[in-house]
Design a protein that fits this description.
CATH class: Alpha Beta
Number of domains: 1
Radius of gyration: 19 Å
CATH topology: Rossmann fold
Shape: globular
Strand content: 15-25%
Bound molecules: S-adenosylmethionine
Structural class: alpha/beta
Order of helices and strands: HHEHEHEEHEHHHEHHHE
Number of helices: 11
CATH architecture: 3-Layer(aba) Sandwich
Largest sheet: 7 strands, mixed
Strand order of the largest sheet: 3-2-1-4-5-7-6
Helix content: 25-40%
Length: 262
């Protein structure tokens, strides 16, 4: 049982704990964007503005507009990057002020359901020659995510959490090819599995605490139950991802990249 798109409240601090690891795919995506001098750069699902310095550095003459549905994230972005423009909107229904020359979106659209509508719609928001550049985790078959479902289903929190647990909306590259290719002059699709080297005692659970685990933790309002759930999931992750001889952990993380030019 799952419910459509319950928006978690975001915690910029937890998300930024792994800023370096989370930034790498953002830059790998940016490196593939072929856009000379867009007058406006949209960062869809901009979060706390992590990618903003890189977008501003690449296109210093452009207006930079970050779009996000979270007040907490926008507040942090606005404080850190006062020269950017920060807009609250839902990516599902958002439209640019005018047909866009560049829509960049890193690690955000996996939170939006209905990709069969969303992606053609975003392509329709582009000006001729405009670029849509998207990176999303495609890691739902990994132990980090499969284990989350197992812990949910096996515990006393089952009924509560199955209500907020989402079906992961990210599909294979073939899915996006069919959605985007009819509207694109050029389409670049690829996947990368990062072998992330993680430090600390409980790195996988600490990582997902800032992303996929967050809506589940938010739903467990009783502090004891919340702690027990996190502890159970943490132990499952420690067993699924054994440490290297020096105490570090390798976290394989697969991501899907899309760069489409209209
Ligand atoms: C994992 S963070 C990514 C932030 C940033 N793009 C980065 O690369 O660090 C995901 C962001 O997507 C935003 N988000 C989730 N659902 C959204 C929606 N429907 N519309 C707009 N933003 C959304 C969240 O508020 C959050 O800031």
């Amino acid at each position: 049982m799952s419910q459509p798109n319950k928006q978690p409240t975001w915690n910029p601090g937890q998300y930024l704990k792994f800023a370096g690891q989370r930034m790498r795919p953002a830059l790998d995506l940016l490196n593939q964007v072929d856009a000379e001098a867009p007058s406006v750069v949209y960062d869809l699902g901009c979060g706390p503005g992590n990618v903003t310095p890189f977008l501003m550095g690449r296109w210093p003459e452009a207006r930079h507009i970050g779009v996000d549905s979270s007040d907490q994230m926008l507040e942090k972005a606005r404080a850190e990057h006062p020269t950017g423009e920060w807009v609250k909107a839902d990516a599902k229904t958002w439209a640019p002020e005018a047909p866009a020359e560049l829509i960049y979106s890193n690690a955000a659209l996996q939170w939006v359901d209905g990709h069969a509508d969303l992606f053609p719609r975003l392509m329709d928001q582009l000006a001729p020659g405009g670029v849509l550049a998207v990176q999303m985790p495609h890691n739902h078959a990994a132990p980090s995510h499969m284990g989350m479902r197992e812990v949910v289903e096996a515990g006393p929190w089952r009924d509560k959490l199955l209500l907020v647990m989402r079906e992961f909306p990210v599909g294979d590259p073939e899915v996006y090819y069919d959605l985007i290719a009819p509207k694109a002059a050029n389409l670049n699709l690829w996947e990368t599995t990062y072998a992330q080297i993680m430090e600390g005692d409980n790195p996988i659970a600490e990582w997902t605490k800032g992303s996929a685990l967050k809506p589940l933790l938010d739903a467990l309002t009783d502090p004891d139950e919340n702690a027990e759930f996190f502890d159970t999931y943490s132990k499952a992750m420690q067993a699924a991802y054994p440490k290297q001889s020096d105490g570090k952990t390798i976290f394989h993380f697969r991501r899907l990249f899309i760069v489409a030019k209209k």
